[in-house]
Write a structure and sequence with these properties.
Length: about 220
C-alpha cells in the first residue's frame, strides 16, 4: 500500500485503512494525527480471574500430597483475591498428569460457594472435598491448579448475624495476610501449608535469574576496583 513509515501511515486515508484492516488501525492513524482515540487507563482494572498453578519438580500421587498442594494454592489465591478487595462466587480446581505419557488424564471440578467468599479455610475444604476423591493413586500428577471466578466487591456483601451469636467472626485470611506481609510468605499457613519449606514437589528455581528490578535483596551489586 506504499506505507513504509509512521509518517506514511499518518497521511494515508483513514477510511481506507479501516475497511482494509480494522477500527483499531484507524484509531492508530488518528492518534498519529494528534487526535486522542485511546485514552490512558489511570487505574488498573481488577482481575476478573485469579489463578494459581504450578508444575511440580517431583510428581505427586497421594491424597496427602494433594491436600498439601491445595492448602498452599488456595491460601495464595485467596490472598490475591483479598488484595484487590474482591469475593469469589466460583472456584475451579484440577490435577493433571504429564501430557507426554500415554494415559494422560486431567481431573477437574467447579465449585459454587453458598455466598461469595475470600476465606482460605472455606476454599481449601471445598477443594479437597471435591477433588480428593477423584485422585487415582496409580497416577503421577505433575500439575495442580486453583482458579477463582465471578468476583464482586467485598463491601457489597456485608453480612449480619441475625441471632447475634458471632457479631465479629474470625477473619483467618486477614490475619494470615498481616503476618505473612511482615514476616514472609512461608511464616505461617493453614494446616499442611504452614511452617514447612523445601517441599519435594515445589518447582525448582535454582537457575532463576535475579529479580534486580523488583526485589531489594536481589539488587545488582557493582564492585569497584
Amino acid at each position: 500500500m506504499g506505507i513504509h513509515t509512521a509518517a506514511d501511515l499518518r497521511d494515508t486515508d483513514a477510511v481506507r485503512i479501516r475497511s482494509r484492516f480494522s477500527v483499531v488501525m484507524e484509531r492508530t492513524v488518528q492518534e498519529l494525527r494528534g487526535i486522542d482515540c485511546l485514552p490512558l487507563e489511570e487505574e488498573r482494572a481488577d482481575k476478573e480471574q485469579i489463578q494459581f498453578s504450578r508444575s511440580f519438580s517431583t510428581p505427586i500421587s497421594t491424597v496427602v500430597e494433594l491436600e498439601e498442594v491445595l492448602s498452599v494454592y488456595t491460601q495464595r489465591a485467596s490472598a490475591r483475591l483479598r488484595q484487590q478487595g474482591s469475593l469469589a462466587r466460583l472456584m475451579r480446581c484440577y490435577a493433571s498428569t504429564s501430557p507426554f505419557q500415554d494415559n494422560h488424564t486431567t481431573h477437574a471440578v467447579s465449585l459454587a460457594f453458598p455466598n461469595p467468599t475470600d476465606d482460605p479455610v472455606e476454599m481449601y475444604r471445598a477443594a479437597i472435598t471435591a477433588l480428593g476423591p477423584q485422585l487415582d493413586s496409580t497416577q503421577r500428577y505433575v500439575r495442580v491448579g486453583v482458579s477463582l471466578h465471578e468476583f464482586s466487591p467485598t463491601d457489597s456483601h456485608a453480612t449480619l448475624d441475625i441471632f447475634g451469636t458471632d457479631p465479629t467472626p474470625f477473619a483467618a485470611g486477614a490475619v494470615l495476610d498481616s503476618i505473612t506481609a511482615r514476616y514472609g510468605p512461608e511464616t505461617l499457613g493453614l494446616g499442611l501449608a504452614g511452617l514447612k519449606t523445601n517441599r519435594a514437589w515445589t518447582m525448582r528455581r535454582e537457575m532463576v535469574s535475579p529479580r534486580a528490578t523488583t526485589h531489594w535483596d536481589e539488587l545488582a551489586t557493582v564492585k569497584a576496583n
